[in-house]
Amino acid sequence: MLQIISGKFFDSDDRFRHDAKGILFSNYSWVQPIETCVATLEPVDTYASVSSYVVSYVNQIEKEKPPAKNVLIRTGDSEIVEQFMLLCCFSLKAFFHQDRNVVAVACRDQRINSSDYHIPSNFVPRIFSRQINGSVSEVESLSGFIDSAISLKREYYNSLIISLRNFTDALQIIGTNIDLAYSLLVYSLEALAQRSDTYAPAWEDYPNEVRENLDKILCGIADDTAKDIKNTLLKNNNLKAIKRFLDFVHSHIDEQFFIDEAPPGFMTVRSSELDRALRNAYTIRSKFAHQLQPIQEQLKHPRMANGDVIRFSGEPYLSISGLVRVVQHVIGNFVKKKDKVTHEAFNWRNELPGVIRMELAPQYWIWQHNELKPEHATKKLSGFLSQLETVFLNSEPMTDLRELLYEYEKLINQSANPYKTQMLVTYVLYNAFVADEHKCVNYSKVFDKNKELFNHCTIEIMVMWLLMGQRWPWTAEMCASCWQDYQRAKHRKSSITVPRVMGVAVMVEIASMYKQENNTSKYNSWMGIAILEAAGQKDTQKRLIEAKSGLVQVTGMEVMNGAIQKKV
Q1: d(C-alpha 86, C-alpha 162), whole Å
Q2: Residues 6+ away with beta carbon under 8 Å from 423
Q3: Tens digit of pLDDT for each residue in 325-363?
C-alpha cells in the first residue's frame, strides 16, 4: 500500500487525498524530521529510553473513471505505517515497532528473569542497542533507500516487503525463540531467491557422500545412460532450491561485504568459507522446518556468537549476527540492482488491503456462452452440479441455460471426450429437471442421437443417472473403480468437481450395489467411507451409521433427501 500511495500507478491527478498520521517507537534517536518520498518521520520525544515518532503521509487513491456507484476513498493506513516501519528498521539498522513496550523489551540490556538467556543485543549489537544516536549520513541513506524501494517494479517491491517482514519478525523473536529466528532469516533470503528460477544445479552440487557413491555405481554404466541418470537426479526440487538460494546470495554479495562492512576480529566470515557457511545455514533451516531440530548450542551462546561465524569441527556456521549481516547486504544490493521505474501500468486496485478474491456463485457465470470452447464444459458442468445440489436441498431457482445449450448443440459433435460427455450431461440434466415449457426444443433428438454414449461408465454419467433416478447398468466393481479414478484425478483441469452431497450419494449407491451382490465386506467399507465423507452433515451421518448397522436401508438417491423428485 505504501507504494500505491506514492502515485506511481495512477494515470491522473484526480484523487481522493487524506492527510494521515501513524505512531512508531524506536531505539533510534534523531531530533529533526526525516522527509522521504512517501512519508515524513517526525520525532516527538527523543530523550526518553524509547524514542517516539509520528509518521505523516498523504493517503491517496485515484478516482475511478467513469465514477463508480460504490466509491472507496481511503484504505490501508495500518499497512502503510507497517511498510514504512519495515523500511526504516532495515535502512537505519535500528529496531522500530508500533508498540513502545515491544521496543523496550527487545532492546533490553539486562535479563528480565532467570530464564531470559537470549538478550537480543548480545547477538545483534547495533540493531538492539539501548539507544542509537543517529547521524546525517544515516538519515540521508534512509531517504535514498525508501526512494529506491518505492521505484522498484511492483513484483520486486512485493518481494522486498515479504523479505523485510520476515527479517523484522526474526529480529523480534530472537529473545524468545532463537531457533525460529534463525530460520526466518534464511527464509527472508529465500523469498527473494524464489523470483530467480534460472539456476540449474550441476552434478558437483550433489551432496558429496551421495555423489561419490553414485559415481562408483555409474562408472560401470554406459556414458549416455549415466548422463541421463545424473540429469534426472538433478531435477530434484530440494537440490534446485539449494542451488537457487546459493547462487542468488552469491550474486548479491560484493567485495565491500568483506572489506568496509566486515567487523574487526578473527570471527569474520571469509570469502572462501562463505559458500560452505551458507550451505550449513540452509541445512539448519531445513532441519528446523522439517524436524524442529534446534540450532547448534554454540550459536546460542552470546560469547561465542558475537562474530560472523563459529568454526566447529572444521565447519563454518553463520551466527545470528553473521546471518543478519548477510541478509542486510543482500537485500540492500537487491534494491540497488533492480530497475527503477517512475510510472508503471499495474492494476493496483486488486492489491488494496481488504480486497479478497472469491469464486462467483454458479448462477452468475454458467449461462455465459460468448467465445465458448469445448474445454469450458468441465467448469460449467461442475458449476451446474453445484447449483443443482443447492436447488434440490434448498428449493432455490435454477439458472436458465437454454442459450448455452443451443451452443452446445453445435459443439457436441465437433468435440472429443471428456468435453463431449460433459456437454451432454449438462444438456440432459438441465432438460430433465425443468418444466416442459422450459426444455430445449431439440432435447429428444440430441438425447436419442447420443444415448449410446451414456452406456460408458464415467463419473459424469454415473452422477447423471443417479440424479435422474436410474439404476447404473454396470457392476459394483466397475462403479467403485470409476469413483476411485475420479478421486485420483479430480484436481486435474479436465476433471469435474462433484459437489459434497452428490459425492456421498455416489458412495452410498456403490455400497448398495455391493450389498445387492451380497458382498458385506465391501458394503461396510464403502458405507464407512461415505460416513466419513459426510462430515458435518449430522442427520445424514446418523442415517448412514444406522444403515451400516443394518437398522435401515439407504440408497444414493435417498441421500438427496427426496428433493430430487421435485420439478424445478
Answers
A1: 10
A2: 374, 377, 381, 408, 411, 412, 415
A3: 999 999 999 999 998 999 999 888 888 887 777 888 899
